[in-house]
Amino acid sequence: MGPGKLLRLLVYALALVLLIGPQALGVRFHWAIGRRIPVLFHRIGLWALGVRVTQIGHPPKETPTLVLSNHVSWLDIVVLGSLRPLSFVAKSEIAGWPLFGTLARLQRSIFIERERKAATSEVNATIARRLARGELIVLFAEGTTGDGQRLLPFRTSLVGAARLALADHSLDEIVLQPLALVYTRRDGLPLTRRERPEIAWYGDMDLVPHLGAFLKAGPVDVEIRWGSPIPFDAATDRKRAAARAEDEVRRALNVGLGRAGAPTPPHPTR
């Protein structure tokens, strides 16, 4: 790791130290600053980590929106969090991780205990309340991370939050927004399949060695490909709407990887 990157990482760490207190207060007292600080922090993160972001398509408007995205890496949080105030739906184990759990809570993440049968309805109620307040919620609809080469089937149970928001909060319509995250280049050169595990974090990969390998390599280019918004009202079929979003994300992923119309490669054994 060169001295330039090391200096940027030190600035990133300093930003964490300086911002974590004000952010905790902002979340505790529901101040507007609690929604803005994470955006600043993630933008510093992009600079420090050498990540260049390109947006393609039309980002969500200021309406209640549930974003349905693929999930490739821990880096997805930094990339998406740099765009605008938003929150993520995350598995409950993350809440207990050192540092990362604290950062997830300060991002106002919504945690779900997948093992509990009642967890889905509870989380849907929380998502519905947040959507009704006009918040942007990101759901990694595959339910896990993938290798960035193909899309896993979407899990549709949490899309039920849109139905709940309509029923319980007097909203006429929610928007489902498909999103494909496509990591395309490293050091200015197209990523090969062999290089993707340097960015994608999936399966049984240990986080610390993965972070170390990532930091030693060069800058990364990522495309954020927004699909067409899908209106969701009282008459919308949840599973069909989720399937339409899944098709859009898969199509955008294939286009971003330069294989539009080509068969999707198999996912590695998990």
Record keyword descriptors for this entry.
alpha/beta, nine-stranded mixed sheet, 9 strands
Structure explained in plain terms:
With 270 residues, the protein is an alpha/beta fold. The chain contains 8 helices and 9 strands. The protein has helices at 3-28, 33-49, 75-81, 100-106, 119-132, 160-168, 207-216, 238-256, and strands at 51-56, 65-69, 87-91, 110-112, 136-140, 174-186, 189-190, 220-226, 230-232. Helix 4 links the parallel strand 3 (87-91) and strand 4. Helix 2 (33-49) crosses helix 3 (75-81) and helix 5 (119-132) crosses helix 6.
Amino- and carboxy-terminal Cα gap: 31 Å
The low-pLDDT segments are 262-270
Tell me the Rg in angstroms.
Answer: 18 Å
> What is the number of E strands?
9
The quaternary organization reads as single chain
What are the secondary-structure elements, in order, as H or E? Answer: HHEEHEHEHEHEEHEEH
Based on Cα principal axes, name the global outline.
globular
Strand content: 15-25%
> What's the story with the biggest beta sheet?
9 strands, mixed
Helix coverage percent: 40-55%
Q: Determine the number of helices (DSSP H or I, runs of at least 4 residues).
A: 8
Please identify the structural class as seen in this structure: alpha/beta
Q: If you average the pLDDT, what whole number results?
A: 90
